[in-house]
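C-alpha cells please, single chain.
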Amino acid sequence: MVGSEAGGAAFPGRLTGGGSTVSVMVATAIVIADMVGVGVFTSLGFQVKDIPSGFSILLLWIIGGIVALCGVFSYSELGAMFPRSSGEYNFLSRAFHPSVGFLAGWVSATVGFAAPVALAAMAFGEYAKSLLPGWPPLGLAIAVVWMVSLIKLSGVRHSSSFQFISTVLKVALIVAFLLAGFIIGTPQAMSFAPSTSDFAHLTSGPFAIGLVFVMYSFSGWNAATYIIGEMRTPQRSLPRALLAGTLIVLVLYVALNAVFLQTTPIEKLSGQLDVARIAGSYIFGDFGGRVVGAMICIGLVSSISAMMWIGPRVMMTMGEDIPALRVFARKSSQGAPAYAIIFQLAVASLMLFTRSFEAVLDFIQFALLCCSFLTVLGLIKLRFTQPDAPRPYRAWGYPITPLVFLLVTAFMMYHLLTERPLQSFLGTLIMISGLLIYAVFRKRADPRSATAPTDRG
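Here you go.
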C-alpha cells in the first residue's frame, strides 16, 4: 500500500489507472521514441576529439547501453510489482514514503518533461529550416508541439496509432541511412579492431566524461513505466517493452556511430556538433544535409509524441492521490487526461516563448538522476524489507546489475556536482520545494479530517 510501510499519511493508490489498451509493440515504440533524440547525432564530434579510436568509441556506446539495461532490469521488477502509471512517483512512494514519490513526481510533472519537449521542438524547428526555408524555427517548434498535443487529446487509441507509426518510420529512416552509409559511403581509414593504445583511452578522463553524455543519450529507457496502467498484462508486457526498446536503441546507436566513423574523415568530425549532417554530405553529397534533416525531424516528432504522452500521466496519477490536484486526474470521453496534457502543453509553450528550456534542463539533470538513483536503491531496500512480496518479474543479475547502475549514476551525479555546482544546487532546491509542497498537501489532507483520503492500494 502506498506509504503504509513508512507510517506516513498515505495518498490513495490504485494499481492500474485507466483502460489497459497499450500493446507491447506500442510500449516498445514509446521507449525507442523517447530515447532516440538528437544526442546520438551530435555527441560524436566531441568524443573523437579526445578519443580518436573507433574501437573505444563503439565500446563507449556499448557500455552506455549495458548500464541502461541494468536500469531496465531494476525498473521492470518494480513495475511488475506495482503496475501503476507514473514511473518514479509510484515506485518511490511504495519503496520509501509518499513524500519521496511526490518529490519525483513534482519534478517530472512540472518541468521534467516539459523542458525536453521544448528542446526537442526547438531542434525540430532548426532542422526543418532546410526543408521549409523561410519558416521561423520558433513557429515550427510551437506548431509541432500543439499538433502532437491535439493528437494526445484525441484519446489513447489515436495516440497509440500515431506513436507506433511515427516510431516505425523513424527507425526505418535510420536503418535506410545506415544501409546507405555501409553500401554507397566511401570507406575511411578507420579500424574498429582493438589496439594497444585503447587501454589508455578506456582509463582516461575523456572516456569517463564521454560516458556521462552517452548515458544522457540513453535516457528514456524507462519511458514505458509511466504508462503501466494503460498496458495490457503489464507484469509481462513492461519488462518486454523496456528490454526490447533498449536493445534496439543500443544496436542503432552503435551502428550509427560506426557509419559516421566509416564514411567521414575523423578530422572533419572532431569538435563538430552536427556530425550527422557532415556524414550525410559524405554519403549523399550536397543533398545529404536535407536527407539528414528530414530524418531527424521525423525522429523528433516521434520523441515529442512520446514525452507528451507519458509526461501528463505523472500529473494524472498525482491527481488521483492528492485532492488539491484532482482536476488533473479527469479524463476525456476518449480516455485522455485532458487537463494534465493541457498543463504540460502550456509549460512547454511558455518555455519556448521565453527560451528558458535550456536553463531548466541544466538544473533538473541532477534532480532526475537523483530520482533514478533512489528508485533502484528502493528495489534493493524492498528485497530486504519485503522479501516475500509477489514479484512477477525479478531483476536479472541481481544484485550486480542494480549496483552497476547505482555506481554509474552516482558518478554522473558527482560529475554534475563538480562541473555544474550552481545548477545542481538549483536542482536540489526544486526537490526541496517539492517536499514543502507535499507537507502543505498532507496538512490539508489530515487523517483526522472527515474528508481525508484513505489508502485504497
